[in-house]
């Protein structure tokens, strides 16, 4: 098989995986909604995902890919959750190159800014303040000079519970360790640094893993690792939901949640590289800003 055909095969496998993972997550979250018989919102209609096609337009208004945004709002468990998939391509501006890559890939990107990228992105904001918000994304990036994978997952509780934090990290480590015992400590440290909010001098949550430009030279091995990062998400997150979704809460708890969401908004709009990259490259702004909560507050 020629190198070009192999590359196209790899791209198509990545696209299919991100869609398959998205479908598994949507089904799981809708089942959680239907089975929710506790709490203040138990009489709500169970939440369902609304799907909408998204597109990316370049400066000449030419379509260069897109994807599908799936949003659930005002459910019994989920106040707002979005799960997006996309495949985009074109040429990167110098601004976009500076935003989305570490130094090792700058030279060839500046020489040839053509790119292709596909991935999945998820953010969930919960009705119950005792249930943590969560973020997960994985992606494959290809240029004429290199390819790599990126992504991760992190937990964002407004009311922290050490047992939840331990469980979330234990699952991340278990799936990372299948591939390389160095991955979890390396990518946990990266998450701690990446999700830090400098002007508040604190992290936006209790961490997880984060990685970018993951390329060991073996595409099959690296793709297998990224698949396991995706597979780790549901057991890491839904165990916490199942354990705590019956808990009652009051208005003081809700106020803590809304205040913490303010921190989340500040991070995503000021520092998050994915947000900056999506907006600077012309992707659908509603899809890029899917991560923002429906309500937040600042004291």
What can you see in these coordinates?
The protein has helices at residues 3-34, 94-100, 106-111, 162-177, 183-194, 219-244, 251-270, 273-280, 285-288, and strands at 50-57, 63-73, 78-91, 114-126, 133-143, 147-156, 196-197, 202-203, 207-214. It is α+β, with helices and mostly antiparallel strands and 299 residues long. The radius of gyration is 19 Å and the shape is globular. Helices cover 44% and strands 26% of the residues. The protein has nine helices and nine strands. The mean pLDDT is 90. Strand 1 (50-57) and strand 2 form a beta hairpin. It has one domain (3-291): oxygen-dependent coproporphyrinogen oxidase (3-Layer(aba) Sandwich), CATH 3.40.1500.10. The strands form two sheets. Strands 1-2-3-4-5-6-9 form a seven-stranded antiparallel sheet. Strands 7-8 form a two-stranded antiparallel sheet.
């Amino acid at each position: 098989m020629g190198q070009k055909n192999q590359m196209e095969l790899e791209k198509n496998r990545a696209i299919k995986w991100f869609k398959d993972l998205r479908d598994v997550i949507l089904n799981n979250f809708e089942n959680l909604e239907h089975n929710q018989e506790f709490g203040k919102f138990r009489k709500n209609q169970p939440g369902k995902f609304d799907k909408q096609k998204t597109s990316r337009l370049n400066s000449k208004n030419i379509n260069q890919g897109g994807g599908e945004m799936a949003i659930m709002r005002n459910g019994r468990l989920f106040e707002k959750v979005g799960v997006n998939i996309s495949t985009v391509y074109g040429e990167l501006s110098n601004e976009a190159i500076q935003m989305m890559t570490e130094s090792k890939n700058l030279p060839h990107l500046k020489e040839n800014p053509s790119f292709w990228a596909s991935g999945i992105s998820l953010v969930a904001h919960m009705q119950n303040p005792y249930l943590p918000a969560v973020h997960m994304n994985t992606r494959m990036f290809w240029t004429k000079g290199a390819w790599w994978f990126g992504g991760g997952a992190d937990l964002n509780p407004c009311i922290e519970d050490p047992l939840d934090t331990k469980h979330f990290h234990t699952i991340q480590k278990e799936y990372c360790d299948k591939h390389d015992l160095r991955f979890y400590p390396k990518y946990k440290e990266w998450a701690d640094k990446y999700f830090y909010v400098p002007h508040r001098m604190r992290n936006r949550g209790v961490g997880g893993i984060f990685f970018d430009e993951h390329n060991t030279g073996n595409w099959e091995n690296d793709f297998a690792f990224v698949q396991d990062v995706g597979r780790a998400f549901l057991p890491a997150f839904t165990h916490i939901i199942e354990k705590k979704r019956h808990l009652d809460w009051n208005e003081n708890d809700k106020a803590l949640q809304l205040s913490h969401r303010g921190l989340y908004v500040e991070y995503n709009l000021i520092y998050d590289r994915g947000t900056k990259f999506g907006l600077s490259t012309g992707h659908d702004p509603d899809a890029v800003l899917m991560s923002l909560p429906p309500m937040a507050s600042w004291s």
